[in-house]
Amino acid sequence: MISAAEVQHSLKTKFLGQTIHTFEVVDSTNTVAKKLAETGAPEGTIVVAEYQTAGRGRYNRKWYGERGKNILLSLVLRPLGSELTRLLTYLTAVCAAEVAEDRTKKRVKCKWPNDLLLNGKKFCGILLECSWQESTPEYVIVGLGMNVNQENFPNEVRSTATSLKIECGREVDRVGIIRSFLQHLETRYLQSRVKGYGSVLAAWETRCSMFGKEITIDRSGEVLTGRAIRLDSDGALVIKNHRREIRIFAGDVTVLS
Description:
257 residues, SH3 type barrels, BirA Bifunctional Protein, domain 2
């Protein structure tokens, strides 16, 4: 079982991971992190579990994870009122991609809005959940599920899932991944507070292959079709549909051509 002491050993961060709660089993690390945030947990508090009984992605989809093989992590952020919390998804994705690329020596692709792919298969998902007081975020929970050493997957996802071990052919140190991810995330998070998220969005776009292509976006049953044009500075996906531009903040993307 991953311990707080292991992660914090030689961890070079100012606040991310300075408080860590580790569990053998939880229903969801995001749920645990939310409870901690609501009772005053400081920014940077981390929840790590070996297994989730009710792990989930967007739209309450089930997250499959073999016990003791992967990284199931949630962290508490308390962003400034002026920050655009939706941009934290891109920030998290870029940091997770950089760490995975360092371990596998393979290019990670980003699928809008919150999936990471290696060789066209998903190995990592991100789930943000926010609590607001009027128009100001009280806290943001950043959930990260990364397939690290898992090699066997349920039939439902076997053809679409992969892991770092599958891609690099060797066991990967999960603690090292967590430590490196936290260091990357804190550095970019603090930089973005001062300089904005332009460099984060640019780094994300270079890893996404949908721009310039025809796509469909399923927004809970409403399907839009258009050409993916760009990301706006607030994180919106812009598509061109019948000579007009439409800004999208959520949905499932399928690339048509």
